[in-house]
Amino acid sequence: MSRAGARPAGVVLDLGNVLIDWDPVAAVAAGVGEDEARRFFAADDFDFMAWNHGPDSGGTWEEAEALVRRTHPHWERHALSYREHFTSSLLGEVPGTADVVRDLHAAGVPMVGLTNWSAELYPHAPERFEVLALLDDVVVSGEVGAAKPDPAAYRAAIDRTGLPAERLVFVDDKQLNVDAAADLGMDAIVFTTAEDLREQLRRRGLPV
Question: Which of 116, 121, 140, 166 could form a disulfide with 4 if both were Cys (CB 3.0 to 4.6 A apart)?
Fold first, then answer.
């Protein structure tokens, strides 16, 4: 139940590893091989997620890749493989979540996606995943220039639902992002499985 005690009226949900199974290792491996990709992601001197956050926050991939050339030239081939083979990172739908989205859509529940995704690479998603068309809108962090857990990203999503934060359920697989949503007044859920999500939404009175 929302903080105000009213039944939630809409849902804001993350895409990566909530609705779409995303594995960046697979993209890098497509360019340099599995062993080299694992070595890259395990490296002590390079933080892939921090680097990826730049384009997710509105930067360009040219800027991000130029940074690697300047600061970590030994990882350049690995880093460039990510964008080159990006579609290999999109493994498919997370089992069951699309069915939850379909049920919410059929019941007329407003839904907005909020994803940390670069503006340049996001178009691959709606091309491959028809379920995204059931969302009323998708806030792409790279387009709005703010990525979770930046409050500006959440405010953009809240605005697009047309509902107050207290009437929204937020769903994300990262505790940090869930905590930031809760700080803004949303009823926030850490995603684990589609079955658990369905149960959590049912407890809140949503028709799934």
Answer: 166
